[in-house]
Automatic annotation (TrEMBL), chain A:
SMART domains for the chain: ETF
Residues covered by the Electron transfer flavoprotein alpha/beta-subunit N-terminal domain: 22-218
Molecular function GO terms recorded: electron transfer activity
Name this polypeptide is given: Electron transfer flavoprotein small subunit
UniProtKB/TrEMBL annotation, chain B:
Domain of life: Bacteria
Family of this protein: Belongs to the ETF-QO/FixC family.
Pfam hit, one: FAD_oxidored
FixC-like C-terminal domain location: 367-430
GO MF, one annotated term: oxidoreductase activity
Keyword Oxidoreductase tagged: yes
Name used for this protein in its record: Electron transfer flavoprotein-quinone oxidoreductase
Gene3D superfamilies recorded: FAD/NAD(P)-binding domain
Length: 274, 431
């Protein structure tokens, strides 16, 4: 089983500052980390590999520093990593990113056929969740988003069953392999990496490809040129105002809360009865 | 089969990284283990990096290292409640190559320095805690980390695990600290615009200033405070020995708040925004507190070996020099295939023959004297302030009479003999 995990280096948005004048992220203010959802994606690939055997490759697109997230993935237990890095990729939106990554996946597949692609649900700097499904569409494999459990893998029959999180519940899906999963954080806990992995990662030098290494590529679909997305405006959501702090003993708090809720006529249907 | 390295270095601070850098440059197989998220993430220092020892490792490092400002002015303050007597030196020659020292932010500098060791061939593993040294037949043969399959082996283990060296304690090299052997320093990084810093400290572009503050900065207790200029932030901090803190029932953060609101200090900070708050122990026991630094298959460097000169605020430079000396000994030991204590004791000899131990020896009584006789900071600093105030106040008294009056007030308060004794004792401690 060959699983490829797509990972992205992102600024740690837990601590990033937003420039109040331009409303853009001040990327210098936060360290670059492996996108947290992608860490869970790598962990899941490693977990599956430990059950079925095979290889876990990670793939990333970014500047040369993005090697760090591939090393991080090796720590978690990935076997090898590929970075596509080229000025031609710069300024890519989700459309151009999914195109470049799908080209790299095709190349990886030529060497060792890919049975499954796993991505994080979304990157915490853009929050779009479009790149995963975009790759699936381009590779013409089924995308399954918001996966919280890989329930069963049936290699001889070439299919798997996964559990998806829906707004109103869960969904069990059976899909052919190869397919592409995007995973939620609930799918697993990141394990504390064993020491040999740490040493391997410290030593590891990923394969770095430029555009010309990817074979036949339509350069018009890469980077800024291949990106129709225009950012109209960025803004920090206004702070919610008002509100009321309820204090006192638990019983008092509950009583007060109930009083407030009961006064809100629109809240309960029995108050709305005509 | 767990891996075996030539050298495992525990701790990627200045001492460990220097040692890793020199070993790796000489072709040794080096594993550098850091417990923090990245080198520098857990390290704290007031912020002055000396040029000399760093330059011996990486010539002209100032051209690429992330430095804040070259220090062109050093001020020393004897501070009382509402006054300060100051002296200092400002020289433009310090603003040119090869410079004298720099202010740095450790989180950035240590990362850069560790990267240099990695480029030289050392393997760096972060976020990993070494829990103990592995000992076989009285010889250290490796380390145990807190990770699964966590044992790693090496010919030599270098303990660069900092002031509270748990590994040194495990091996019996260290005893638990006495409260007078260690200082607790708290500091804050305060963001302030470059223009405001230049204006308030009277600096031009790429010029830095350091102020060491004695006296009321520690409410008269044994210790010092500092105020250093970074590019667009200030480092302000204060530390006293744990024993003084206990005796005076001081809380470190209260002391820092007191300093920040002191009328002599506050105007420098006004409008600044607190960016980081840090605290750390500093080994200040000096010469007598230096533990055993070499054993079978193990050496101790930097803060772990208590190599800090509290009087001259030197520490990171001693850490670097000791790391380099340890590396040179290890390279020789590797060459001879002998990692016994007697072979590694060459490092001890190097250390004791160098400026590090000579300086520590020179001041071996200093902190102890100042600890035992608290009058220096508690009484004499205010006394000097009163004398200066009297001398510089123009009130029609002839200067000669003023001098007499000042002398009388100094000896009058304590008695001539006691003052002379105090002067002699202080002189003896630092001579």
């Amino acid at each position: 089983m060959h699983i490829v995990v797509c990972v992205k280096q992102v600024p740690d948005t837990k601590i990033i500052k937003i420039n109040p004048k331009t409303n853009t992220l001040d990327r210098r203010s936060a360290p670059a980390i492996l996108n947290p959802y992608d860490a869970h994606a790598v962990q899941e690939a490693v977990r599956i590999k430990n059950l079925t055997g095979g290889t876990v490759s990670v793939l990333s697109m970014g500047p040369p520093q993005a090697v760090a997230v591939i090393k991080k993935s090796i720590e978690i237990g990935a076997d090898r990593g590929f970075l596509i890095s080229d000025r031609a990729f710069a300024g890519a939106d989700t459309l151009a990113t999914s195109y470049a990554l799908s080209k790299a996946l095709e190349k990886i597949s030529m060497d060792l056929e890919v049975d499954m692609v796993i991505c994080g649900k979304h990157a915490i700097d853009g929050d779009t969740g479009q790149v995963g499904p975009g790759i699936a569409r381009r590779l013409d494999i089924p995308p399954i988003t918001n996966v919280i459990e890989v329930t069963r893998i049936n290699l001889p029959e070439g299919n798997l069953i996964v559990k998806r999180k829906q707004i109103s519940g869960y969904e069990l899906i059976q899909s052919e392999l190869p397919c592409l999963l995007t995973v939620e954080k609930d799918i697993n806990d990141i394990e504390y990496a064993p020491m040999p992995n740490m040493i391997k990662a410290a030593r590891y030098e990923p394969v770095v490809w430029s555009v010309s290494d990817l074979g036949e590529v339509d350069r018009k679909q890469l980077g800024l040129k291949g990106s129709p997305t225009i950012v109209g405006k960025m803004f920090t959501p206004p702070k919610l105002e008002g509100g009321k702090m309820i204090e006192g003993a638990l019983e008092e708090q509950l009583n007060e809360l109930m009083d407030i809720l009961m006064e809100r006529k629109d809240l309960f249907s029995f108050n709305n009865s005509k | 089969m767990p891996e075996k390295f030539d050298v495992i270095i525990v701790g990627a601070g200045p001492a460990g990284t220097s040692c890793a850098f020199v070993c790796a440059k000489n072709g040794l197989n080096v594993l550098l283990i850091e417990r923090g998220e990245y080198p520098g993430s857990k390290n704290v220092m007031g912020g002055v990096l000396y040029r000399k020892q760093m330059e011996e490792l990486i010539p002209e490092f100032w051209k690429e290292a992330p430095l804040e400002r070259p220090v062109i002015e050093q001020r020393f303050w004897m501070m009382d409640k509402e006054s300060v007597v100051q002296f200092g030196y400002k020289g433009l020659e310090w603003g040119q190559e090869p410079y004298n020292n720099f202010t740095v932010l450790r989180a950035q500098f240590d990362q850069w320095f560790a990267q240099k060791a990695v480029e030289a061939g050392a393997l760096l593993v972060n976020e990993t805690v070494v829990t103990e040294c592995l000992v076989e037949d009285g010889k250290v043969v490796g380390v145990r980390t807190d990770r699964p399959d966590g044992d790693v082996f090496a010919d030599v283990v270098v303990l660069a695990d900092g002031v509270n060296s748990l590994l040194g304690k495990q091996l019996g090299f260290h005893k638990e600290f006495r409260p007078d052997e260690v200082a607790l320093t708290v500091m804050e990084v305060i963001n302030l615009s470059k223009d405001k810093i230049n204006e308030r400290f009277n600096l031009s572009e790429n010029q830095g200033c350091t102020i060491e503050i004695f006296g009321d900065s520690t409410k008269g207790n044994l210790g010092t405070a500092f105020l250093y200029t970074n590019k667009d932030s200030l480092n302000i901090g204060v530390g006293t020995t744990l024993s003084s803190m206990i005796k005076a029932k001081l809380k470190p953060y209260e002391l820092l708040d007191y300093l920040k609101t002191h009328p002599m200090v506050k105007p420098f900070l006004e409008g600044g925004e607190s960016a980081e708050y840090l605290a750390h122990l500093i080994p200040e026991g000096g010469y007598r507190s230096v533990p055993k630094v070499a054993g079978n298959g193990v050496v101790v460097v930097g803060d772990a070996a208590q190599l800090v000169n509290a009087i001259h605020r030197e520490g990171s430079n001693m850490a670097m020099a000791s790391g380099k000396m340890a590396a040179e000994t290890i390279i020789l030991a590797k060459h001879e295939g002998d990692f016994s204590e007697s072979s590694l004791n060459r490092y001890r000899e190097e250390l004791y023959g160098s400026f590090i131990m000579k300086d520590l020896e020179k001041y071996k009584d200093a902190t102890h004297v100042f600890e035992k006789y608290p009058q220096y900071l508690r009484d004499y600093v205010p006394m000097v302030n009163r004398a200066a105030s009297k001398f510089f106040t123009v009130d029609g008294t002839p200067k000669k009479d003023k001098q007499k009056e000042i002398m009388r007030s100094v000896t009058g308060e304590k008695g001539t003999i006691r003052v002379l004794k105090d002067i002699y004792r202080a002189w003896k401690a630092v001579k």
